[in-house]
Design a protein that fits this description.
Keywords: Hydrolase. This protein has a single domain, classed as Nucleoside Triphosphate Pyrophosphohydrolase. 23% of the residues lie in helices and 44% in strands. It is built from three helices and eight strands. Strands 1, 2, 3, 4, 5, 6, 7 and 8 form an eight-stranded mixed β-sheet that branches.
Length: 153
């Protein structure tokens, strides 16, 4: 296998009334696959900023990040090594307005029903879903402390 590079990705599960938001993607590498709002970090951006930005771009929602299910390392279908930071969030503003070119649908579902959908990167999402169902969450303060250490002057 020829590795192309390392990609840093953020992913967010947004909860409302015991349901989580999933989006149906229409991207070249994920046509009609369901996923959590997610995307690549941009240069100079911290992890938490990236997570909030990706949610806003893909769904129109503003979110408050509350915790994390962890960091996941895998190889994508395009042979990139992906390091994915997955967060749990609640809506703090905005309204659903999907990114028209890349997101074709969204819906609120119970976490126990997530595996009934055709998911992108199933092997990783299964781990995330399992952590969600078992409520295995890391405190968001862990990432705040990490950002402060990296940004010290």
């Amino acid at each position: 296998m020829n590795q192309l590079g390392i990609v840093l990705v953020v992913s967010v599960s947004i909860f409302k009334d015991e349901e989580v938001l999933i989006i149906k993607e229409n991207k070249p590498t994920a046509i009609n696959k369901w996923n959590f709002p997610s995307g690549r970090m941009e240069y100079g951006e911290d992890i938490l900023e990236a997570a909030r930005r990706e949610v806003k771009e893909e769904t129109g929602l503003d979110v408050k990040l509350t915790s994390s299910t962890g960091v996941y390392n895998f190889y994508s279908s395009t042979n990139n090594q992906v390091i994915l930071f997955h967060f749990i969030a609640e809506q703090s503003g905005g309204s659903i307005k999907l990114e028209e070119d890349e997101i074709v649908e969204c819906k609120w579902v119970k976490p126990g029903d997530l595996l009934n959908y055709e998911l992108r990167e199933l092997h990783v999402l299964e781990q995330i879903i399992n952590n969600i169902k078992q409520k295995k969450f890391l405190p968001i303060s862990l990432f705040n402390a990490m950002i402060e250490r990296v940004n010290f002057k």
